[in-house]
Amino acid sequence: xxxxxxxxxxxxxxxxxxxxxxxxxxxxxxxxxxxxxxxxxxxxxxxxxxxxxxxxxxxxxxxxxxxxxxxxxxxxxxxxxxxxxxxxxxxxxxxxxxxxxxxxxxxxxxxxxxxxxxxxxxxxxxxxxxxxxxxxxxxxxxxxxxxxxxxxxxxxxxxxxxxxxxxxxxxxxxxxxxxxxxxxxxxxxxxxxxxxxxxxxxxxxxxxxxxxxxxxxxxxxxxxxxxxxxxxxxxxxxxxxxxxxxxxxxxxxxxxxxxxxxxxxxxxxxxxxxxxxxxxxxxxxxxxxxxxxxxxxxxxxxxxxxxxxxxxxxxxxxxxxxxxxxxxxxxxxxxxxxxxxxxxx
Length: 345
Known about the structure:
The chain is an alpha/beta fold.
């Protein structure tokens, strides 16, 4: 029986099958289906999924903001699981190892970008939960080159958000250089992790949320932000840098107004609404705007080594696999602070 035929069969128990939440069509809810348990190809691992974080990028895939998903697709790219079959791998991991799988799932390994440690820019790269089936399922397969050991001491639920919210935030923070006063625009999963990293590095964080989202502001202060307010407010002091997590293009000009001369505004999302035009005077003074594109394996290695030293503690809200659509809706509406994670039993 082919995988495509499985998408159209009713769910019942079969030997060699698994549950999965798939996206058939953009702008439609995920569907619970039964699929054949995947078989790893050369260089791949079969992973029994324990947990998978829910990311705003998942919403961008569902909503059609990202135009090239390999439909039907199993979403989810913050995967924590254990190796179930390593027979096709080089031996980097063994059966039973707990590993994580991030957004960047494959790159060509041959182009100029790949050969200079910038595989995040590879033109032929493929992404977990977008072109490669992800972690909203009992099992998945992944290229062993793009898997990471999970740091000791991290439960599955707490580890999952590190694999995108943490990694992308870490890359964005690196783009601020030695900035001391940094504004975070949008205080969700990534910001709540990154604030802990920034405090460890003796930086000051100024947190901005959507107007009316006072719970996010209180959460930011609880984690150590020196100031928190809504995005319509100006910070009490000029900022050295700003990181924009929210997918709202108008925040670029808001952040430019908040940073001083020489400041940088980092756009950390994979998708953002159009940036409105603005006068050159806002950019003048050697201010800069940068974007973050995906992640590199070096980012993963560095951040996952640093996280337990801080230690980063993630606040998570758990949903069973069958409630994945509810988790996505809650994320969209901002009904929780911290991160959402799908648990796989």
